[in-house]
Task: structure prediction
Amino acid sequence: MNGLTSLEKAQKVVLDSASALGCEKIGLLEAMGRVLGEDIIAPRDNPPWNNSAMDGFAVRWEDIKQDFAITRIPELKIIEDVPAGNMPQKTVGRGEAIRIMTGAPMPAGADTVVRVEFTEPLGDDHVRIMKPEDGQGVHIRPQGEDVKQGDCIIAKGTMLRPGEIGMLAILAKSFVSVYQRPRVAILSTGDELADLDERFDESKIVNSNSYGIAAGVQEAGGIPLLLGIANDHPDSLKEKIYQGLTCDIIVLSGGVSMGDYDFTKPVFEELGAEMNFWKLAIRPGQPVAFGKIQRSLAFGLPGNPVSSMVTFDQLVRLAILKMGGHSSFQRPVVKAVFQETFSKHTDRRHFLRGVLKHEDGVLTVRTTGGQGSGILTSMVKANGLIDVPEDVEHLNPGDTVSVQLLSRNF
Ligand code: AMP
Ligand code: MG
Result:
């Protein structure tokens, strides 16, 4: 081997170290995007009774099934009106019909609905059936066609989207159990950094990593807690890390290489972390430190903005998702047709920032341009990460590549 650790191996170590947090009850309107902490068992059928799928008349198929070409037009006596929200009181007998609205419960005796467009009124209380319906039982939505009482309708571990929220409302769940959101402490390190709310001179650069990482935490369903900036000194680092130990995860950026001012690794070790120190076989992404300090998972990410974001995305995000109750962790992947030439060595898997497009019915992808690990506009422009495997040396226009979808429409 080349001394590099594969991303898959590092991801497995991270996922094995993380476990789902406890659950909490929240109101349904707060539940969008949260992960369900209980199996949802239907307490009743939906729909709760057979009901009409049309505005029209509930009838007996016997009374209307005749051949319209050769016999008279059926005329039925209207014995009741059933608007939606009312229960029918009467039973449809021979030669009778009940006027019914979409969604209203089917009356006893009737087995078919004739849509209103196929009928004509006849006086105040009769209706003529002008056209045949397709057959016995049409336009009836059967009881339980959507949900059967006792079935598990949404499984624990499902992320709630509008469909699930609507279903929970159907099942009258106004409160729902969801996994707690992991709390993630974020610390940037480096004497060159200044924070947004500070006055700073020209020797400094703005600490952007903390904000980009905080946004990544939120996107993954976690709660970020910004610890600010630590100096390039072990004591400063330790003091800040202590503040983060109430959180489930601590993420540092910068200071993780082996330079004179890189203290993440020794400080993690001094604080009792059983350390994994990886030189990951990916680009962007340099050394990454990972271990457990007391109850918190601790990550040391590279300082370069794109490297920190990509390593966050491929490692820290997985831990947040698992702690947050998710059961799948990889971003959705699509195949797309590469439009450029690209060459690399075969020792690392590359994540090129890419722009996916639909062109003439084909999904295409181009890089965003410069791919240096300090070029954050590459993340601004990208809607996908082009995943170029370790063993691929060249890509040519027309080659098919895998692209991880970053959350943006295209
Ligand atoms: P380091 O990994 O500490 O050697 O940092 C590498 C480079 O990343 C530094 O020279 C900075 O330019 C940049 N960098 C480190 N931390 C941050 C940060 N929090 N925000 C923006 N850039 C950073
Ligand atoms: Mg540094």
Remarks:
- Residues 33 and 160 are 5 Å apart (CA to CA).
- The chain has a mean pLDDT of 95.
- The longest strand covers residues 349-359.
